[in-house]
Each structure stands twice: as structure tokens, then as C-alpha cells.
């Protein structure tokens, strides 16, 4: 393990993160929307999810590894599932907390349930949804360290190698880029936030 | 135009709307009023099927509204919700054009509507069309809320307390705007309020509700003249008499409990009574308490020494009226006769009271300020 391996590891790490966050985001968004249509279900679904969420990532990846072996899919699925939670929760919370007056106005104007969702509810929930995406991105960068545990590379390789050889330099060589990656990706999401949130709501958000 | 037939709504055992039937004519401004929780909002929402009645039918232009698609129905009924509910993610122009967009009108058409409607409420297009609701004042938001309801030219517009959150000045000017819009566009409006002044100002017909029932449905003038219940009277409060002075009578303006003396009383007794009460005339009645006339201190001074009782001194120059006489006529009589007071009599010519300038003024003040 030397510094020459860093770009490769960084690239792998980035790929794990982006792919699983993208998948997790879509899944979380869809599930969050579905759950918000049936708020009665959330009383059951959300507690179950949060119990699941408390299973440490390392345990989950380990179990999945035992079942599936050392595949890219193992890592992506495990990370993707973890990336789903924050988005799901925030999508649900964001949609549920859309002020009833807007929904009533939308229905009163003659929007169908789908039109109401896409034209009013989702835009209004978007800041919260993107907040979930941000959390999910930052977490996934650190969870992706676990990929090296089952021999699939990423920045975790440096950290594990450093830990086993007591080489602090190696640990830092993995940890610092990981931290930077989290920071950069998080900032990108912030940028996205500023772009996709409608202007009229940015003001409201800033005031809040 | 809009007809309710035996419409009821229950939540569980609770009857929210209890068998209401009414009809609103095309082009009318109907105002729903009543105490909080009486079912006004519920009634309104049943018109655009945000709430479905548990019994009865609602017809628009003779057609049962349940026969139409809900979503389609709502696109042809303007709706202003109480909390305004402008979409914060849309500009003023986009908010106004929500319904035209849903109806897939062309972009040019939508643009034309925005121009035209903003002009109607004196908000220049260039200045406001591309602002977001959060950048508008409460009154401006309320205006846009109303324009959104009008944009697709629906034949019926529903408004749920659209002005409740405004200061009196803005409120009055918006009321006038709504009234003139409604008349200009000749639309049927159903307007909810719990402000009687607003109702009297705006309504062609007022529907007064209480506990899910219609207590009275009448034009404002009729409701003022013949309120169907004490509660309506309370709601009408200060407007009821001020707005219909015709109904006032002499009895409303008089001071009752005046002192009378029998004609057989002695002069001295009368003089001391006048001094005690600080009056310069006394009202004289016969044994059956019927009005005879008045005696004045001036006459007593002049000729009191030659008579023993007041009987010969009685004069009938004080004008008399009857309790049920029109108050305005009494007022005119009091002023034109120059008499210090009028004597008010009942059907048997017994004295009910007197009307003085003071009693008249205080009665008027009471009518005016309550
Ligand atoms: N979902 C509901 N479940 C049970 N009762 C309800 C529900 N919605 C409204 N009510 C009751 O129905 C009655 C009528 O409500 P509604 O909102 O029509 O009153 P309102 O006349 O508009 O009152 P306000 O002037 O306060 O707005 C109230 O007593 C209310 O408590
Ligand atoms: Mg209400």
C-alpha cells in the first residue's frame, strides 16, 4: 500500500458512494412517497426501519458477505440500503409536514392526487428531501470504508492496512481523503439544494 | 343555479349538517354566516366535494354534482380557502394560472389572464407577476388568492372567510373589490363569514346557520327587519335598528315613569311638588288616569291665588302622540311645535311617558352606538 494506490482507491470509494447513494435516493424517495400516502402504515414501518438502521453497517455487510460472497453487489446493496434510510425518513417527514392549507388549496383547484404530489407536495418537501440526501451521502462515504473489509477496495484499504500494521501514516492516508470526500460531496449536495429548491421557498427556508 | 336538497352530514353519531335545503340563483352573492362550528365551512366544501354529504343531493345547474368527476368539477368552481394557501413554490403568475394550466390552456392565454386579472386589483404586472407569495403583503396575498379562484372564469366561486386575517382598512377595500368583481363578472358567489357587517355589505342573500341547520335565508333588508331568531338579532346587533329607523316608535324615544297629578289637587300641593321635582309643568290626569292636559308654574303664579284646585288652569296646548306612532314624526312634531315635550299616550289615552329633546337624543345615541 503506497500513495500510488490512492487515486485508484479514491475512485473506487467514490464509485461505491455515488452508485449506492443514487440507488438509495431513488428507493428512499419512492418508499417515502408511498409511506406518506398511507400515514397509518408509518406507525409500523418507521419503528421497524429504525431498528434495522441500528444494526451496525459492519454486521450487515458481514452477513451479506457470508450469504453472497465478495461481490461488488454485496457492497453496493449494503451501502444502498443504508443510504435509503435517511432519504426515506426525510421524504416521509417532509411530505407529512406540508401544511394542510396547500394540499386543500391544491385539491380545491382541481389537482388530481398525482398532480398535487408533483406540483405542490414534493416541491414543498424538497428542502427536507435533499437534507436526507446530504445525510445519506456523508454517511455512505464513511460506510464505504467497510468495502475493504471484504476485499473490494476503496479508501478503507489504507485504513485497515494501517491498523493491522500499526502504521498511522497509512491510516491517515485513507482517513483524510475520506473526510475530504465527505466534505466535497456534502458541499455538492448543498449546491444542488440551492439550485433545485424553488426561489420562493429559499427565502422562507432562510428565514426559518 | 346551486341547490341543496335535504343535505345532511354526520361524523359518527354527531350531526354536523342537519337536513339543509336551499337554492342560490345565478349571479347572486350568497353569504353563509353563523356562530363558530355551525357548519359553514363544511357546507362550502360539500359544494366542491372536498366533503361528501352522508345524505341528500346537491345540484349545479340541475345536475347532481356526484354525477361529475370530482377533479373536473373543482376545476370549474373557484375556491378561496380561509388560510389563502398560495403555493410558496410558485410565482404570482403561476399561482394565478394553476387552474388554467390544469385545463391545458395555452401559454398566451394564461399570460393574458394574468395581465388582465392583476390589472383588476391594481397590482401592476411588471411589478408583481414574478414575485413569490412570501414577498407579498397579507392583503396582496389575499388578492392573489381570489384571482387564482377567478382565473379560469368559473361560474361559481366559493370563499371561506377570505378577509378574516386583515386589518379593517384593507378588508373594506377588498370587500369592495370582491363585490364589484362579482357584479362585473356576474358570477355566483358563496361567501362564508362570521362578520355581520361584511354579510350585510356584500350579500344579495344571507343564509344564517346554527348547529348545522339553516335558521333563516333572506336578503339583508329582510333579515334586518324580521330577524327569525334572537340569535340572529344578536348577530345583527347594532345594525338592526340603525339600518331601519322606520321601525322605531314614539315609545322607543320616550321617557317613562313621569309624574302625573289628578285634576282635583290643590294649588299649594302642586307648587311644592313642582319645586321638589324641579319641573315647571305637571301632567294632569282624570280619575281613570286619562290625560287631561298640563298645568304650568307660570299659570299658577298668574292666577293661582283665585282658584283652589288646578282644574281650571289645565291647558291642552302640549302636543300628544301615541306609543305606536312613528318616531321620526314625533321628532318632527317636537321640533316644529316648539313645545318642551310631547306627551305619549296609550290606546286608552293614559299617559305612557313624555318625549323631550333629551330623551330623544339619548334614544338616538343608543341606536347609533348601542
Ligand atoms: N373531521 C371532522 N370530524 C368530526 N367533526 C368535525 C370534523 N370537521 C369538522 N367537524 C365539526 O363540524 C362542525 C362544523 O365545522 P365547520 O368547520 O363547518 O364550522 P364553521 O361553521 O366553518 O366554523 P368556523 O366559523 O369556526 O370556521 C364543528 O362542530 C366541527 O367541530
Ligand atoms: Mg369555517
Report the C-alpha radius of gyration of chain B, rounded: 31 Å
β-sheet strand percentage of chain A: under 5%
- Could you name the CATH homologous superfamily of chain A? MetI-like
What's the overall average pLDDT of chain B, rounded?
Answer: 89
**How is the biggest beta sheet of chain B arranged?**
6 strands, mixed
Brief write-up:
The complex is a heterodimer of chains A (208) and B (370). Chain A has 208 residues and is mainly α.
Could you outline the blueprint of secondary structure elements for this entry?
The complex is a heterodimer of chains A (208) and B (370).
Chain A: H1 6-37, H2 39-54, H3 57-68, H4 72-96, H5 100-108, H6 113-143, H7 156-164, H8 168-196, H9 199-207
Helix pairs in contact in A: 1-4, 1-6, 1-8, 2-4, 3-4, 4-6, 5-6, 6-8, 7-8
Chain B: E1 2-11, E2 14-24, E3 29-33, H1 40-47, E4 55-60, E5 63-64, H2 70-75, E6 77-80, H3 92-96, H4 98-102, H5 107-120, H6 125-128, H7 138-150, E7 156-160, H8 168-185, E8 188-193, H9 196-202, E9 205-210, E10 213-218, H10 220-225, H11 230-236, H12 239-242, H13 250-253, E11 255-256, E12 260-262, H14 267-277, E13 281-285, E14 291-296, H15 297-303, E15 320-322, H16 327-337, E16 341-345, E17 351-356, H17 357-369
Parallel strand pairs in B: 3-8, 3-9, 6-7, 7-8, 12-13, 15-16
Antiparallel strand pairs in B: 1-2, 1-4, 4-5, 9-10, 11-17, 13-14, 16-17
Bound molecules: adenosine-5'-triphosphate and magnesium ion.
Adenosine-5'-triphosphate binds next to helix 1 of chain B.
